[in-house]
């Protein structure tokens, strides 16, 4: 699951090269589908990872009015999305008809307070006593 803050730029990390075909330098086109409405957005972005054969890092910035579909500025409103990442041979290619195939799919959450991940903390009220039989 990828988490994106809708009030700024978020870095997302995925592993794509392990599922790519034998291209030396593949590019990636993102397809994001909003759950419920099925609105679809396609965009490309620069891989800013320092170790692209092991992990891939992208910056995603939700935009409300101006889009930069080849710059990571995408129209996202808070909610849940399904994402597909396609391997392509051409940089900034938004057409899936020329894509080689899907290399990653998953869930993307866009929200206002996604910088903090909930952490479970246990206290005495949540403890279930266990009694040992003699």
Q: How many helices in DSSP terms?
A: 0
Main beta-sheet strand count, sense and barrel state? 5 strands, mixed
CATH topology: Immunoglobulin-like
> First CA to last CA: what distance?
47 Å
As a percent range, the share of helical residues equals under 10%
Query: How would you classify the helix and strand content by structural class?
Result: mainly beta
The CATH architecture: Sandwich
Task: Give the tally of β-strands.
Answer: 8
Task: Write a brief structural summary.
This protein has no helices and eight strands.
Written overview of the protein:
The chain starts with a strand and ends in a 23-residue tail after the last strand. It has 134 residues and is an all-beta fold. It has strands spanning 2-5, 10-14, 27-34, 40-44, 56-62, 73-74, 79-88, 101-111. It has a single domain (2-126), classed as Immunoglobulin-like, CATH 2.60.40. The protein is built from no helices and 8 strands. The protein has a 5-stranded mixed sheet with strand order 1-8-7-3-4, with no helix packed on it. Strands 2-5-6 form a 3-stranded mixed sheet, with no helix packed on it.
